[in-house]
Write a structure and sequence with these properties.
By secondary structure, this protein is mainly alpha-helical. The protein has one domain. The chain is about 55% helix and about 5% strand.
């Protein structure tokens, strides 16, 4: 996949997760103009220690469904 195709795919996954209540940051287009060395496209998910195991499992399930729906 080209970089642009990777960014498009990750942004679709990120948007679908957001629609289901899980916030992911796509390091695709928005970092391109701000960094000297641009990292490969990626998703960033942060989990805090105050989140329950059930919340973490829900977030992982949402991410898996979003990936399965877009790959």
């Amino acid at each position: 996949m080209s970089r642009e195709e990777q960014v498009d795919l990750l942004e679709k996954v990120s948007e679908e997760c957001l629609d289901r209540g899980v916030f992911l940051i796509s390091t695709g287009r928005h970092v391109y103009h701000h960094l000297h060395r641009v990292p490969p496209p990626a998703l960033r998910l942060t989990i805090m220690n105050k989140q329950s195991k059930e919340e973490i499992n829900m977030a992982v399930g949402v991410l898996k469904k979003a990936i399965d729906a877009n790959v």
